[in-house]
């Protein structure tokens, strides 16, 4: 019942708009939210499949790349000349240099296979030299974990990020121990994987992808152009290096992301490499969000247009009802001659015709009652006329103002606010006229009276009359004689605009000048012809007893200005026929300003 009461109290246009939004807007919004969530889910799932395929591709291409150093290590394991070169006893440096020069396999491997960038053979041999192919391990190198792991694994391959002594750069390297010829000692071979070839595999991927070794050291990455240390720091802080093979939902830098991890375990290796690819859900759903945004714009635009059409339809319906209500109000106020014409054969159109028939019947009955009671009311009417004449002789301004106030309140009660406003303005204007004496009033008060008069005329002329009042705040407190501007405005309306079908504009401007204020009243009415203007100016210049009745407004204002302020305040009239009239005069200020 509460909902029904609210709907009954609501305007029809609002009621239809709410009905449309409830019946169409909310279901459309729910469908949009469901489809949006589904689209995002499909995009994320599709991207996850793509990333998994990309990781598999990286895994296969990396396996093909490291297969080359693995094959070379197998060859070196069976290369007796290499073992002899690394372990034989040399009697002189010349013999060492000659032996290094005769052994060319390492140089040939490096030249032939672009998948590797270097080969180093570490073996303890006091008589040998270091030539970046055959190296004497230092104690620091012997203490390295990877070196000890290679010795301990007895020929099994390992993959680690180790430092190349030549460049001091960290390189992904194959490490493998091998037995030295005619000795129980072991050497370690290190084969560097070509970093450019490894990076080229990752650069082809569209998502951030990187490779790490078993010690979680960053081998290669396509997501960061900086150093490996910076990349390692970033991903270590996100705890993704410790993830096993699979896919995961994690947060990177406050963004929801997906991580796909794949493991590469080369043949005969004691450790493995891992391929990790990361993608931000926000980035992969950017296009989907754009499509969703465009869809939302289309849906919102459609809803706005539909709401506007619904509102327009409701407005058309409500206006027809308002016309009916207006005519009912006219009948209620006593206008029996009203006739309502509403097109259409709908309920409102039928109701309007029934309303006209009802008014016609009531009017007929009303006239019958008037005819029947006319003789009785004639005597009462004569008595009332006598009483009225007696009361009229006793009327005073207080009764007039009370009567006007009663009329204004009755119009307000009947919701005829425009008539109530005009009656109030008329009451205010009459009060100011009747109560006016010789005392000076503020300039802003005079302008209020002028505005009240213009508002009354505005009610009469409606859009035919436009007016503008402008006064500078600094001179609002200047004191002037009462009714010094209103007669000029009244004269502009009566003689300037009253005979123009298109109406016109009245402009009153009060500006500050040295020693007072300049007041200008102008209109765009019919204006004066040259002969008429000359006649008016002669009349203003003539003595007071020669004034003509039709110019009493201008003459009255002019005479009062001259008496109060002298000839400096005489009215100046500028006019031409068809171009309007401008009347200007000056009121001294100075000490009169509060």
Automatic annotation (TrEMBL):
Q: Name one GO molecular function term.
A: phosphorelay sensor kinase activity
Q: How does it sit in the membrane?
A: Multi-pass membrane protein
Mostly located where? membrane
> Which PROSITE patterns did the record assign?
HAMP
InterPro entries from the entry? Answer: Bact_2-comp_sensor_kinase, HAMP_dom, HATPase_C_sf, HATPase_dom, Sig_transdc_His_kin_internal
- UniProt KW keywords: Cell membrane, Kinase, Membrane, Phosphoprotein, Transferase, Transmembrane, Transmembrane helix
CC annotations in GO: plasma membrane
What are the residue boundaries of the HAMP domain, all occurrences included? 315-367
Where, by residue number, does the polypeptide cross the bilayer? 291-317
The compartments listed are: Cell membrane
A Pfam family found in this protein is: His_kinase
- Protein name listed in UniProt: Sensor histidine kinase
The lineage is: Bacteria, Bacillati, Bacillota, Bacilli, Bacillales
